[in-house]
Structures are given as C-alpha cells and as structure tokens.
Amino acid sequence: GESVGLHLPTLSVQEGDNSIINCAYSNSASDYFIWYKQESGKGPQFIIDIRSNMDKRQGQRVTVLLNKTVKHLSLQIAATQPGDSAVYFCAESRGYNKLIFGAGTRLAVHP
Amino acid sequence: GAVVSQHPSWVICKSGTSVKIECRSLDFQATTMFWYRQFPKQSLMLMATSNEGSKATYEQGVEKDKFLINHASLTLSTLTVTSAHPEDSSFYICSAELSGATDTQYFGPGTRLTVL
After folding, report:
1. Within a 13 Å sphere around the CA of A77, how many CA atoms are in the beta-carbon half?
2. What is the pLDDT of residues A68-79, one digit of tens each?
3. If you ran DSSP here, which 8-state letter would residue A60 be given?
4. Coil, strand or helix: which one is A83?
5. A1 CB burial (10 A radius; 0-12, 13-18, 19+)
6. Which of B51, B57, B107, B114 is the mutation pick for testing A, counting most A CBs within 10 A?
7. How many CB atoms lie within 10 A of CB B40?
8. What are B14-31's pLDDT values in tens digits?
9. Is B43 within 8 Å of chain A by CB?
10. What mean pLDDT is predicted for residues B45-69?
C-alpha cells in the first residue's frame, strides 16, 4: 500500500560532520512534507517543512530537499551536534490534514 | 506559543480498568486534534481525528468503543482507553491543529500507558 518510508534505520555520524537522512514517499498527490525530531519519551518536535511547489527549503542548520520526480525527501543537518541525537521522522500530508509518518531513522552522534 | 500539554505524562493501571488521557492546547484554539499511538521503536500511527463538537473519525482497525474520544471544547480533547489490557500499553500522543491554519499540527509530550 501507499506509505512513507525511510532508507536507513540508523545513522551514525561524528560530531561536526553533516548528516543526511532520507525518506521515500509513494503518493505523488501528497503536497506537504514535514520533518520531526523525537527524543526518547517525548513527543515529536517540528523541524522543517516543505510544500510540493518547492524543491529546497533552509532553516537554521537544516535543509530539506524535495525531489518530486523520484518521490524522495531528505533532511540535511549541518555540523551535527550531540544534541541532534534522536529519531527523525518524515511525514506527508495527503489532505484533510492527516499526517502519515515514515518509519523513522535514529541519528547517533559520536564525539 | 502553540503549546500542547498532555495529562498524565505516564499512568500504570490494572487490566480491565479504564484510563482517561487529556490533551490541551494551552495558548491557542484547536478545532481539530489528533490522537496517535506509538509502540516502542516504531513510528506514530494515527488513531483518530477529533473535531470539536462532533464525533471523532477513527482510522481503520481502531475500535471506537474501546478508544473513546471527546472533544468538548476548542482547547481540550480526551482519550479514554476502556477495559485496558496489556496489549494497549503504548505511548499515546496527541496533536492540535491551529484553527484556521491547516497542515500545522503541534504535538503534545505524550502519555506512557502501562497496563499490568
């Protein structure tokens, strides 16, 4: 069935390096995508979003790229810090404001 | 701004009892709230969409008689897990949508339910 999925369940990076977390989606009708960060025992925290009429959006240390041709979404974190360690979820909105979450990627930042 | 709270943050109950979880939007009005369930090391699964003043819309496979949702005001939605069993143990998370601002959901901190 249709789903939002992630390529890597775990990503380990060195502190200071850049991180790239990927996400594939299957519904070409989705028009809104969000990245969330979830720390252990907490609710999801909004990081950045992007609409389907854009290819790239930048925030503070984070960039989201959207490739509609291959239905791929990525989150880039610059100069990764220990505080970035968490599980990252992509989510897509298919109308009626319902969010469909991907499986999640755990980011582990090593000193 | 846009803070969502949940109460309690964790609860332990005996099998067969009912548990109520509250979700509140503290500084904004939310016409629509959402309830999610998250099992360990898994993603968030939408359970139901709660609209103020009307019946909740449940996702396929979610028992409406077991997970009672009430959204009586623009700042409060409650989820009651009735006759809880150990398999209902999970992390329950709510989100609230800012009225008039579609696609923007603010998440609560979650409630850890453990059924013995």
Report:
1. 26
2. 999 999 999 999
3. S
4. helix
5. exposed
6. B107
7. 7
8. 999 999 999 999 999 888
9. yes
10. 93
